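It is worth pausing here to work through a concrete case rather than discussing structure prediction in the abstract. The textbook approach is simple: state the sequence, then state the predicted structure, then interpret. We follow exactly that order.
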Amino acid sequence: MSSVVAVSGEAAEVASAEVRAILSLVQDEERRGKLADLAAALADGEVAGEDAQALEEVLELALQTGRVRALYGPEGETAALALYRRLPRGRELSEAAREVSAALAALEGRRIEQVTVAAGGPAAHVVTVRAEGLELSIRLDRQGARLTTVGI
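Step two, the predicted structure:
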């Protein structure tokens, strides 16, 4: 069973406006229906299940393109990002970031010997850090940050 995410305040205003903007452009009736359901859920102040997934997609697009910041300013962007982090995909990305941060903590107090960044594919990079006999590689892409290699 999916959890219910409450949506209110500026986050609700930004999300609702973005859903309406996309709804005005979509021709496909099935997609229009899903967006209309999402708009209704936002008006009720809660999203779950398919509505939460649709909201994730809307917020990802709006945040990645910079549209939220351009239209609603830093406060709107902050509100949208906070809402996104409470949705399932946002929670997954936040947890992955915490795991990578925990791995990087192993480097504290060690002398950094080398840091490299390599292209890992479209919209993906691998950051490798070597410090006193320890090597960590972190992949950064649209799926988030993931530890890919730990070497001693």
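Step three, interpretation. The longest strand covers residues 112-121. The chain has a mean pLDDT of 93.
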